[in-house]
Amino acid sequence: MPKRMCRRRGAPSFRFIHEDKEQTFTASVPRTRRIESLVEENEMAAVILDGTKIAAEIRGEVAAEVKAMTAAGARPGLAVVLVGHNPASEVYVRGKVKACEEVGIYSEQHTPPETASTRELLALVEELNRREEIDGILVQLPLPSHVDSKKVLLAVDPAKDVDGFHPMNVGFLATQRPGLVPCTPAGIMEILRRSKVAVAGQEAVVVGRSDIVGKPVAMLLTNANATVTICHSKTRDLAGVCRRGDIVVAAIGRAGMITRDFVKPGATVIDVGMNKVTDRAEFERLFAGNAKREETFRSKGSTLVGDVHPEVAEAAGAITPVPGGVGPLTIAMLMANTVRAAKLRRGALVPAS
After folding, report:
1. Between the CA of residue 214 and those of 15, 218, 298, what are the distances in Å?
2. What is the mean pLDDT of residues 173-177?
3. Active-site option among 23, 50, 96, 135
4. Catalytic pick from 23, 135, 140, 202?
5. 53 an active-site residue?
6. What is the pLDDT averaged over residues 198-205?
7. Cβ pair 183, 164 in contact under 8 A
8. Catalytic residue flag (residue 264)
9. Span 292-348, pLDDT tens digits
């Protein structure tokens, strides 16, 4: 039986009460848990769109496809290029390699030294382009400052561009042709689709216009028949524009910038941000009274927050948490993109699903 999370006025803790019906908004959301947020007496907390659970479903589906393809002699393969020793990049790459192992995708890691030149990296990419058993090539960013990053990325065969950043794949997305879509935007659409959130005919507001998230997710939403507005640093009355959105996607890289005033009641909010908060005053602005977050902040000296202020859960109908929302979908969709690349490239060698 679903749960609602309420709080008695003035009490810092929450109590759960059962009920017979799930909360409804634009569309029902079956895969849910409840957010740890301050809500008014008898007012509902937002439904949480559980990215971790959805990512696990996708990985399971990918693993089944990989098993069938491997049995047919067409095991998908991913090559990751990691230049130098950037600790954060090393963590990301380890996660991607581990994910490959879990779903059965062949993977290999190339680690040129920090001193590698643009010419040397171009030669490595060209070699990977030629190898038939490699279906996906991922060049981990950032590259060293002396390397021409754009030149290296453009050298990746668009058919193996599992990041979906190559201009040819961007063009395919814009014109609704088969291609490879950037992983985070693709993951956002999977969250909406699998959570049965209506998109067609809805107003969607995307806050952020990056090539990696903002622009491609706006195109995907448009292709799904939403009416889309893209906002940025020059947008006038940003809060007013956001309040029009039935769906709000926040991808700006500013901790807790999207507050309750930006969101109309019942809207679905997708929080792409991942910001580390270390300042006590900033922590108090975002999490005052949240005992669980306070414990984490005290023990670690930091906590994570998205681009959406936690108070938005008081108004939203559904929201992705940070962590555990969009993040897990990014790697899951990288796995899915690698399988898709193998299918598009190898054609007849791949068994029908």
Report:
1. 37, 6, 34
2. 96
3. 96
4. 140
5. no
6. 98
7. yes
8. no
9. 999 999 999 999 999 999 999 999 999 999 999 999 999 999 999 999 999 999 885
Query: In the 3-class helix/strand/coil scheme, how is the chain assigned residue by residue?
Result: CCEEEECCCCCCCCEEEECCCCCCCCCCCCCEEECCCCCCCCCCCCEEECHHHHHHHHHHHHHHHHHHHHHCCCCCEEEEECCCCCHHHHHHHHHHHHHHHHHCCEEEEECCCCCCCHHHHHHHHHHHHHCCCCCEEEECCCCCCCCCHHHHHHHCCHHHECCCCCHHHHHHHHCCCCCCCCHHHHHHHHHHHHCCCCCCCCEEEEECCCCCCHHHHHHHHHHCCCEEEEECCCCCCHHHHHCCCCEEEECCCCCCCECHHHCCCCCEEEECCCEEECCHHHHHHHHCCCHHHHHHHHHHCCEEECCECHHHHHCCCEECCCCCCCHHHHHHHHHHHHHHHHHHHHHHHCCCC
Q: Are 326 and 190 in contact (CB under 8 A)?
A: no
Which residue in the list 163, 246, 271, 307 is annotated as catalytic?
163
Left if phi > 0, otherwise alpha if psi is -120 to 50, otherwise beta: which for 253?
Answer: left
Give pTM, 2 decimals. 0.85
- % of the chain beyond a pLDDT of 90: 83
Quick one: pLDDT at residue 353?
A: 58
Note if 140 is an active site residue: yes
C-alpha torsion 252→254→260→262, nearest 10:
-40
Contact 249, 272 (CB under 8 A): yes
Are the C-beta atoms of 204 and 228 separated by less than 8 Å?
yes
Say how many CA atoms lie within 13 Å of 251 toward its Cβ.
24
| Two structure tokens written together for 75 | 């095991």
What is the mean predicted confidence (pLDDT) over 246-256?
97
Distance between CA atoms of 227 and 204, rounded to whole angstroms?
6
